[in-house]
């Protein structure tokens, strides 16, 4: 979920297309698992994930329009799953850290290298959290 906020539009579109694979996996499991009658039991936000996947193939006029579309779709999520909650918490933590860094940038008495190191450590932590997801 965190790659949906990337500044790289290609990364965002790839992340959105991954939701199609998630839906496909849920469809396959539903066919073979007779205990669960509906796909929404396995994947509570199935319809939203399908819309995210479909939106990855629709051409957009820019990054801002794409982010608005993603935000509108994410607001449709009705069930908070542990994975969604963790992604939102990670997003908030990264946003908060980068906001503090950018807010103190002109006032900071740090050398340029120290500010860059701090920024790269924040991004490095985010990448590490993606790898464990």
From TrEMBL:
Residues spanning the signal sequence: 1-20
Keyword Signal carried by entry: yes
Keywords assigned: Signal
Protein name listed in UniProt: Neurofibromin truncated
Annotated organism of origin: Hirondellea gigas
Taxonomic lineage from the root: Eukaryota, Metazoa, Ecdysozoa, Arthropoda, Crustacea
């Amino acid at each position: 979920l965190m790659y949906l906020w990337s500044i790289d539009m290609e990364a965002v579109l790839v992340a959105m297309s991954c939701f199609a694979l998630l839906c496909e996996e849920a469809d396959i499991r539903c066919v073979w698992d007779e205990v669960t009658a509906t796909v929404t039991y396995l994947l509570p936000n199935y319809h939203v994930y399908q819309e995210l996947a479909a939106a990855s193939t629709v051409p957009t006029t820019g990054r801002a329009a794409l982010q608005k579309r993603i935000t509108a779709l994410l607001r449709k999520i009705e069930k908070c799953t542990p994975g969604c909650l963790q992604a939102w918490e990670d997003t908030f933590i990264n946003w908060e850290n980068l906001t503090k860094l950018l807010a103190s940038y002109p006032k900071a008495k740090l050398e340029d290298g120290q500010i860059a190191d701090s920024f790269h450590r924040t991004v490095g932590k985010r990448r590490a959290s993606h790898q464990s997801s």
